[in-house]
Each structure stands twice: as structure tokens, then as C-alpha cells.
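Colleagues,

Please find the record for the two-part complex below.
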Amino acid sequence: MSAIPAEAITAESKADTVGQYDDLVNAGYEHGFVTEIESDTLPPGLDEGVVRAISARKGEPEWMTEWRLAAYRKWLEMPTPTWAAVHYPPIDYQAISYFSAPKKKEGPKSLDEVDPILLETYQKLGIPIEEQKALAGIAVDAVFDSVSVATTFREKLHEAGVIFCSISEAVQDYPELVQKYLGTVVPPTDNFYTGLNSAVFTDGTFVYVPKNTRCPMELSTYFRINTPNTGQFERTLIVADEGSYVSYLEGCTAPQRDENQLHAAVVELIALDDAEIKYSTVQNWYPGDENGKGGIYNFVTKRGDCRGHRSKISWTQVETGSAITWKYPSCILRGDDSVGEFYSVAVTKGRQQADTGTKMIHLGKNTSSTIVSKGISAQHGQQAYRGLVRIAARAEGARNHTQCDSLLIGDKSSAHTFPYIEVKNSSAKMEHEATTSKISDDQLFYCRARGLSEEDAVSMIVNGFCKEVFNELPMEFAVEAQKLLSISLEGAVG
Amino acid sequence: MLSVKGLKANVGDKEILRGLDLEVAPGEVHAIMGPNGSGKSTFAHVLSGREGYEVTAGSAMLDGTDLFELDPEERARLGLFLAFQYPVELPGVNNMYFLKAALNAIRKSRGEDEFDAVSFMRLMKEKLKVLHLDDSLLKRPVNFGFSGGEKKRNEIFQMAMLEPKLAILDETDSGLDIDALRIVADGVNALRSPERSMIVVTHYQRLLDYIEPDYVHVLAKGQIIRSGGKELALELEEKGYGWIVDGEAA
């Protein structure tokens, strides 16, 4: 088929236009992909027609379509947030294409076509060749090991009664669960990007752990089935029913090939009575070149709701990628005796900017929260920790401990700390510690006088600085995260 | 082993070392003594390659290699070890991990196999035994929260593990009580060998009661102004530095 007619892009949001979009989207299948990319991607731009087209393309039920449309209409009235300490040119939301069928994506055909710098990083991380291909976006043969791994994985989870699937599948197969929980932690109207995400999310992950069940393995996006490319508007929903436990790993230490500049994900966690969710992230998206050109904007909203008594939600994140990171994984401590934790390592170098932190909202009695944030800035990297601890009037006996440490490398980087504390109950116990330090010449010389190179010395000192956070990561992930940190800081000194 | 000739070095515009000569043969222990500000620590730092010093003249050869051509880590890999006067704290960096990384960096540079965890542990146990140390310091972050005595013991333990050709002990006795001093000195004595040379930099004679030097040198105003046997240290203890320093200056 030929280029998409301009009138289709600006079509009114009437029911009869949906069919038109469907034709556009589906056309590629019929015509055998003579013009693969064009025919399988919605034209740039966003209106109700596009929202309907996305929903229709995914065969969603009416309630889901309406949910998206309601979000879209609210989004139109919302302003872009400008309070974060990050700078970037205005984003033209009409210039983005909001749907792209994943399978047809034009990727490199072999490793020879992949950016050698990317390959070098894979090798340093020790990633097997087949996985390198997958990460680089090369279509991988069916013989690829992970197929069998995935199958065993799925069987084992099925036995335990754990649901782990793409959110698209969940909308089809478990509509009552999705309807009950979707948007209840992060409402579409929460902020500009959640509004956008709610309207146009393409895929993501759904997890449900039944009562009194301990999920038999770490769930990882890495082994997620049937969602090869979740795209730029990812949606994750994890529900831990009473007395259950789940640990979820998001991301990968290897830099992933990605052509979308704007990423606006939403993650919602719900822990009922006595349930625990541990959510770990390693984010290593493309940060842009040395002038900051071309990197990913990561504007993500992550929030956990300790809805039940004695529930616990723990966020651990290692953020080394993206040009701009705007991210505040938060906990609403609604249930009595519930616990929220946030452990974070964020690295900015080159021209990277990060405004990240957390919110701990204490509503229940005897709730407690811990925040440990480690920020590392090198070269021209800019970083802000922004954290809110709010103790509601009824949150008798609430406790918080906050520790945020910044490490500066070189004299052009910067770190800022913006702690917000609101206490409405006098029984609250609050502790806040903050430090800013530099890697001292003494430390470097000491290491070098023992035979270590300057780079190894920096990496060792930085890893030491981050230790409390790495200790919270699952073992394998922690090892990878350490390596990643070393690689990220290569050449950042001097 | 070590041959230093006509060494001159500045800190900023100020000349600290003004033509220092020193010859150290394998297996020898040399004590360098001198009043405050005589350049003792500067000498130790210049040899190990610390930034902030400018060598303006002279040379320092270790087994025929010009030290001033090398980065600090290259000097360490060549077999030079500096025991710090003020060992530096590395928060969060496990002491064992640090040592293993250092030892393997040195071995690798020499084309030797890197130690795996098992052989490293074995070596560590062996060295702990030689020095009569327990392993309580090893699981903690490098020097972090250590007492003064613990820091110095840790330096000696590192020296034992890295097995240098030439060890420079920079005022290792400073800040130590007599018990800690004895432990450190015993460690140093246990590491004396016909292949290993040591330069003991100290202000006071008392360390030399425990570490018996082959030679004693008096450093003043950036030069070695007198050398002798261990009896020179005793004489200094008795008379102070004034009689030599003033005598030379006159």
C-alpha cells in the first residue's frame, strides 16, 4: 500500500473512523509487507481515532476502550510538568507514532550490522551470543534456548497458580482482575504522562499471585512470554493477594536497542494483607551521544499500594541509562503496620540528567519506611534527589529513615537534594541524613599504590558507595549491576 | 635494588628535596630519621608516585627501572610498596575483595595466573599465621572505622600479601601505643628476607628498638647529612637532631 492519506491522521473520533484505522493497521498483513514499516505502523499523531484504533487493533473489550478514551480526554486538559530539575526541548506529541506492531520491526539481520560499541558492552557483560542477538533486535531462530526455558518456567508458575502474562493477554483472559485493579494505584489523571500512557499503552506485564502463595521463582521481564516489544508506553500491574510473596525483576543490564525517544511507563503494585512485593529495576537505555543527542527520555510513574495490613513493598533501582530520567517509585502505606522501602543507585554522566527519588505516604498506624538513595554524577551529569515523606494525621506511630548520599566525580557534575517532609502526627519518628562527597585524590592514590589502575580504583570506590543498595538486589542481578556500573563509569574520570 | 641519585623535588614553588642520594641493596633495612619538615614523607611519596610533587633533578632506579617514568600502579606492580602514615578509608569496599583485586592486578601485570577465591584464601590464612593476626579486619571495609593500630596492622598485612621487593614504611609508628607498635614491628620483622629491602621512615628512635636497621640516615633540609649504623639512632635519641643539623648548616 502507499503512503497514508493525510485526512486519516486528523480524522474525527467517530465510530466509523475506527474501521478506517483498522484497515490501515491491518493492511500490511494482507499485502505481505511489501512496505513493511509504513503499513504496520500508525501514522504519527494522536486523537480519539488513534486511541480507538490501538484498542481495536488489540481486540480489546468495550470497557477498556472507554477507559482509554476517558484518560485521553483528561490528558488533553493536563499541563506538562515543569517542576523537575531537568531541561529538554518541548516534545511534539503529534509527531509520535503511537502504534507499531512489534514483529515487523526492521532490525539488523546479523550481529555484523549492530553497532560495535554495543557489542563490546555485551561482551564485557558476558552475555551469550544468542542473547546478544535478541537484545540487538535480531530475529532469533526458534531453536533458541530460551524457548524451552520459557516453557518450563510457565509450567512451574501454572502449578503454583501464579498468573504471569502480558497485560494484553490479561485484558482478554482475566478481565475481572484487570478491571478491579487497573488504575487504582496510579489513576490516569495522576499526571501528564500517566494520562498519556493510560490512553495509548501498547503492552506490558500482568502478575497475580494468589493467596498464601510464595511465587516459586524471581519473575523477570527477560523471560516474559509473548511480549517481544512492549514499546514506549509500557503498563505493568502486579497484584499480590493476602499472604503472598513475589519478587519481580525489570530490565536488563545490557543496553537495549530502541528507536523510541519518549518512554512513559506506568507501574502499579498492590499488596494485600501480609503480602510482600519486591520490585527491582536495572535501567540502561541509550543515554545519547556525548552532546546529549538522541538519548531516551524516561518519564515513568511507579507506585505501590500497601493496601493490606502488615504488607510490604520494596523498590530497588539501578539507573544508569537514558538521557533524562524522571522517576519516583513510591509507596502508599495504607494498611496498618505496612512497610515501604526504596533503594536507589542513579548514575549520570556525559550530558545525562536525572530527577529521581520517592514518595512515602504514611496513612496506616505503625507504618514504617526506609529510603536509601545513592547518586553518582560524573562529567556534565546532573542529578537531583527529590523525596517526599508524608505522615497523615491518623498515621499513629509512623517511622521513616532517609539517607541520601551523592558522589561527585570531576568538577563539572552536580547533585541536588530536595527532601520534602510533611508530618501531621506528633508521634512520628523521622530521620534524615544527607551527604555529598567526592572521590578523593587520597583514595585514588591509595588504591593505585596497591597496584590498581585508576579506572579499577574508581569503580571499586563507587561500588563501595553503592553497597547498601546492591545488597538489596537479587544475587545475580547485583553482580551484573556492579559490572554495569564499572562499564558506565569507564572514561568518566580525568 | 634501589639507587637514588641527586634527587631534587618541589611542592609548589618550594624545594623540599635538595639532592638526595641513597643506595639500598637487597635484604637491607634502612632507617631514615630526621626532624619535622626535613622531607622524610616527601621522599616516601615521591618514590611511590603521589601527585603534587615535582621532581626537578636526579633519578630513582628500582632494579634498573626508572621509577619516575612510571605511574603509581606501575611502580606497585614492579614491587614497590608504601605503608601509609595515614591509611585511607574506603567505605563499602570489602578489605579482602580489595586485597584480592590488588594482588591479581599485580600478578596479571607480571604474566602470572590470577588467584581464584580458594588459592587466595589459602594464601591469606598463611600470611595471617606468620603475622599472628586474626581475620577480624578482613571482613570490614578497608580501614573504615579502624582504630589507629588496626589501620597500621592492616598496612602490614597488605605488605605481607603483596610481597614487595622494596617496602617503604612512612612513619608507621606515629600514633601507636607501645603494644600496637610491638605488633606492627613483629610483623615487619617476620617479613624481612634476603630478597626484600625496607626503608623505615621515622621521627623517633623507639621504633628502631623493635625493627633493627642495617643503616641509619639522617635527613635534614632535603639531604642526607649523615649515615651510620644502628648506633647512630641511639646517639640521636640522646642528643636530638640539633647537633648534626646545625653542625652541617654552619
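Chain B has a mean pLDDT of 91.

Comments are welcome before we finalize the supplementary table.
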